[in-house]
Amino acid sequence: MRRTKILAAAGIATTALLALTACNSGSPNTPAGGDAPEPEVAEDVALEGSPTYDAMVERGGPIIGVKEDQPNLGFLDATTGERSGFDIDIARWIAAELGFSEDDITYEPIASANREQALVNGDIDYYVGTYSITDNRKEQIDFAGPYFVTGQGFLVSADSDMTEVTDVSDFNGMTVCSATGSTPIQNIKDNYPEIATEEYDIYSACVDDLLNGKVDAVTTDAAILIGYAAQYPDELKVLDGLFTEERYGVGIPKGDTALQEFINTLFTDGHDTWQEIFDATLGRSGITVEQPAVDPVG
Ligand code: GLU
């Protein structure tokens, strides 16, 4: 089972490696992204039968759940207050197609472990933040997408002798850090009892521990790790080797098929916009990744 997954992810591995090389040659400590052209706000939006959309209209704008410590993906610049990254621009694109401008959007930072509950409670209208589509999560919420595919990787100190991971069990006897409620931490806990784990609500806390030598590695999606390695090019490196397949979806309240279909149609028909967003954000690190086909049932 494990081996099948690794083989399935082999294609992604090559791409991620290319990305890493390109990324580390970039300017240090500068999260890329946020330069996608401002999306055109749709007028005369026709979306019948979506209670989530009706709530957004009533409120005058969407509340979107996001990450804000993941460079290139979902990042908040504390100095300028600017949000940037692939996920943020995907979130903005959806909002614009629903008829809302940037000023209408309320962003809500929500950690990995709290995403389903935020959607179930109606605290947010939709969530865009490295959110893998899983059957477990689909018991509580629905997904549109996928709009991106990556896999689990490992970030270690640049001084480490390791250059690649052939199996996750290479970390037996070591301590790896990841986010509570994430698929990577679950994978380690379920399948690798000889690896010690440390968890925090957000990945940047794991990165701090790695920089301070308190853990041996940070594990999560390679797309996320590449952003941290770019922030600390002299201190950190992403190892070769990818495990699992993480398909990113837009989290929406369960049963809102009208909203799900609206977003899926956008992803299917809007390939050029997807590419523009990708090129301006994650693509700047050198990754070349194809937009995945939408799965009508998430
Ligand atoms: N994509 C994985 C997940 O959804 C890891 C990244 C994250 O925690 O957001 O759990």
TrEMBL record:
- Residues in a coiled coil are none
Q: Which PROSITE patterns match?
A: PROKAR_LIPOPROTEIN (PS51257), SBP_BACTERIAL_3 (PS01039)
Q: Which UniProt keywords apply?
A: Signal, Transport
- Which domain of life does the protein's organism represent? Bacteria
InterPro entries for the chain: Bact_solute-bind_prot3, SBP_3_CS, Solute-binding_3/MltF_N
Protein known as: Glutamate ABC transporter substrate-binding protein
What species is this protein from? Answer: Microbacterium soli
Classification of source organism: Bacteria, Bacillati, Actinomycetota, Actinomycetes, Micrococcales
Domain Solute-binding protein family 3/N-terminal residue range list: 63-285
Q: Which residues form the signal peptide?
A: 1-21
Q: Which SUPFAM superfamilies match?
A: Periplasmic binding protein-like II
Keyword presence, Transport:
yes
The record's family statement is:
Belongs to the bacterial solute-binding protein 3 family.
